[in-house]
């Protein structure tokens, strides 16, 4: 199952020519984790990290985009 996921990602990269602006980093972060419990725990930790650096408004996807733009 995991190999199939990786194959799909590779096919999408080759066909679509994925660029930085068109990929949602937060959805890729979630997609990388298979277990719902792991996903829930890591999301909570990421939320605490964003709160500690002062990014506390918006959804998690918006927060990750703000973090990316700020650190870029």
Short description, anyone?
With 72 residues, the protein is mostly helical.
The number of distinct helices, counting runs of at least 4 residues, comes to 4
The counted number of beta strands is 0
H and E string: HHHH
Give me the Rg, rounded.
Answer: 14 Å
> Given the C-alpha coordinates, what overall shape results?
globular
Judged by helices, strands and strand pairing, the structural class is mainly alpha
Name the assembly state: single chain
What's the average pLDDT?
A: 77
Instruction: Indicate the proportion of strand residues.
Output: under 5%
Helicity level, as a percent range? over 70%
Low-confidence parts lasting 5 or more residues at pLDDT below 50? Answer: 6-21
Largest sheet: none
N- to C-terminal distance: 34 Å
Write structural notes for this entry.
- The chain is mainly α and 72 residues long.
- Helix content is 71%, strand content 0%.
- The chain is built from four helices and no strands.
- The chain has helices at 2-16, 25-31, 36-52, 60-71.
- The chain is globular, with a radius of gyration of 14 Å.
- The protein starts with a helix and ends with a helix.
- Mean pLDDT is 77; it is low at 6-21.
Descriptive key words:
4 helices; single chain; mainly alpha; globular; 72 residues
Write the layout of secondary structure elements.
Layout: H1 2-16, H2 25-31, H3 36-52, H4 60-71
């Amino acid at each position: 199952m995991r190999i199939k996921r990786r194959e799909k990602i590779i096919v999408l990269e080759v066909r679509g020519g994925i660029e930085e602006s068109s990929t949602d980093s937060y959805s890729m972060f979630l997609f990388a984790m298979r277990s719902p419990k792991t996903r829930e725990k890591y999301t909570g930790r990421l939320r605490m990290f964003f709160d500690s650096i002062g990014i506390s408004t918006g959804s998690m996807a918006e927060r990750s985009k703000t973090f990316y733009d700020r650190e870029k």
